[in-house]
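ok so I'm stuck.
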Amino acid sequence: MTRHGSTFPLLNRVVVLVLGSLMFVAAVAAFVMPRKPGGPDFVEGVLLVVFGLAGAAVACLSLLWKPLTGEALELERSLPVPDRPDVGPGAVVYLGRSILKTVEVILDRETGTIHFRNCHVPRGFLTSADAWFSCRVDELNGVHLFRNRRSTTLTIVTPRGRAEIPSTGEGYQELHAALAERVRGTRPGYSADHPMMGMTYVAGAIVGLFAGVFIAPRGADESVLGACMLAGAILGVVAARLLVWIGDRYLQIGLTQPVGYGLSGALVGVSIGTVLPGIVGWNPFWLVVPVLVGGAAGMLFGFVKQSGEMAGPGERLSDGEESA
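replied:
not stuck anymore, here's the structure
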């Protein structure tokens, strides 16, 4: 069954536009009307730039997003596309839309080849989607099913990068079923392509930010405290990526979910640890233990979700998907 529709309703777009605009205006106002003479210091300036750019980005997203309609997809399907490959009559065709472009995935059953249009992003720094990318289906390194409250995304990991396919396009169910029959688990070494990696980075940054607060010297001024928080956030992201890399390179296991959930659990422990001293009295024990327990519980939960995802030759997942 085909599916199409918008995952970004008008009310949500308005809310995102207002919040993004407020973030951008607040950042600009902090530069124009600084709280202290001389303007913001380096750390404050970096944080304000990041805050402002994030606000501008989400505001632009709300304005540029185009609703997905069945009529528009049918028109796209009928138009000629440069370099579109010739495929057999039994090919599975997915057609959808990203923020600005139409995306297409064609799985040719006869040749065992899969073709991506405007959705396959190569690995690397600041890379953009390929106009076309093709590979054999048996070369795929994994297929992940990532669900949230409003939508589902299928992440297809290839030898060169990955493609994220939203469930709102035409032919999604057919593509998902066809890949589930043909792709065997996630091969070791590609867990950084898991769709949860972004959450892992965010959790690492937040945990590192709190760590920067704790390691800052007592009585430090705002500049030193801000520098410690910024350094902690950066190191938290680096540490999360390093742990996942070690798991891929040396342990041959995927650590994206254990690390992501572990850091999230540690963050919950930090929140509990800041409240408990006010209830039971000051003791470093109540600061450290909740973080360790939360981190351990999160990692255990991540390992349980991760179990069975890594598959070697001849093995196959029960349903060919990973949900988070």
